[in-house]
Structure formats: structure tokens, C-alpha cells
Amino acid sequence: MSRTASRAFTLAEVALAIAVFAAAVTVLTQTYVNALLSLDSLDSETALNADLRFVRSIVIKEPNLETFEEGGEIETLASGIAAWEAEVEPAPVSDLFFVNLTIVLKPPDSREPVEFEQHLLLLRPTWSDPVERSELIAENTERLLSMRGSSLPR
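Above: the chain's sequence. Below: its structure in C-alpha cell form.
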């Protein structure tokens, strides 16, 4: 009597199939969790960047130089309180200023404050002293004239 081949799976084949399935499920689950964490991180970074843009847009609109340099605090939508301070130096061009703006976001929960520093070049005529502005314009005019090698009628 000839022996016919069995068409059923052996215990080893079933165990191997279950192991491959478990490995695939583990990898897919880890990938899904990482994708969720990335989306959450991206969401919080987007909110943080939006708060930074908001604070910067409010702060740089300040028309008074002394008030601007004193700094202050602004409440943000997602990051709690934002404290800011600025260092301002006049540029060699009239009404132009180099600004080092520091913004510290103090989250409402127990997380550590986050500090950001930005270097800006701002055109602010209201910050300029009229006498210094006139002197700068005269100096720059003289410099340009000496570069051209000619003079303008006075």
C-alpha cells in the first residue's frame, strides 16, 4: 500500500506562521505608534512656532524704543506666558537698528521654560533721534560723494 502525502499543516509550520505573523504585527504596531508620536510632536512644534510668531509680531510693532527695550510679558494661546526682552543697537544707516530679541515661553504646566533668541534688523523711524539721524544722513552723503568722486551742489 502506498503512502499518500498528507495535506495538513504540521505543528512546526503552524508555529512558524504564528511567529512571522506576531513579528509583522509588532513592527506595524511600532510604526503606527511612532507615526502618532511624530504627529503629536509636529502639532506641538506648530503651536510653539505660532506662539513665537505671534509674540514677535506684537513686540516689533512697539513704537517706543524705551518700552521695547524694557521687555514685558504676553499671554499666548498654547504656550502660556511669553516673557521677552530686547537689546537694540543703531545701525550705520539712519532709522535702522540691530535687535537681539529673546523670548522665553513659560508653559502653564510643569514643563521647563523654553528660550528663543532671534537677531533682527528693523527699520524704525520712531526710534531714531532726529539729531543723530541728520548726522548719519550727512555722513553717508559725504561717503557716497567721496566714492563717486564728485560733489552735489549745496
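Helices lie at 11-59, 65-70, 130-148.
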